[in-house]
Amino acid sequence: MASPHSLMWRKPGRRDAERKSFARLLAEVEKIRQRDGLTQKAMAKEIGVLPMVLRGWIKGGVIARAESIAKLEELVKTSVTDHRYW
């Protein structure tokens, strides 16, 4: 029989809030990418990840690590305040 710790670790829905928050962040990144006319490859280079990693995020199969989430949040914040985009 499985230990109580392993059952708790596999509890369904334990990361739903994190997934929803990441999906909202990626929606903002996707808006910026389309607005600026960047390809996924160019956007991945700007973020500092491989294009296949960005595709995984967009498809929703993967959640980024904390460092990558910080980069994405910084990108969204600077694109709103950066005057070259206006």
CATH class: Mainly Alpha
Runs with pLDDT <50, length 5+? none
Task: Please tell me what the overall shape is.
Answer: globular
Number of helices: 5
- Strand pairing plus helix content: what structural class? mainly alpha
CATH architecture: Orthogonal Bundle
Element pattern in H and E: HHHHH
CATH superfamily: lambda repressor-like DNA-binding domains
Mean pLDDT: 83
CATH topology: 434 Repressor (Amino-terminal Domain)
Describe this structure in words.
By secondary structure, the protein is mainly alpha-helical. The protein has one domain: 434 Repressor (Amino-terminal Domain) (Orthogonal Bundle). It has five helices and no strands. It is globular. 70% of the residues lie in helices and 0% in strands.
Give a brief outline of the structure.
This protein is mainly α and 86 residues long. 70% of the residues lie in helices and 0% in strands. The protein is globular.
Topology:
Layout: H1 4-9, H2 16-36, H3 40-47, H4 51-59, H5 66-81
Salient structural properties:
5 helices, 86 residues, mainly alpha, 434 Repressor (Amino-terminal Domain)
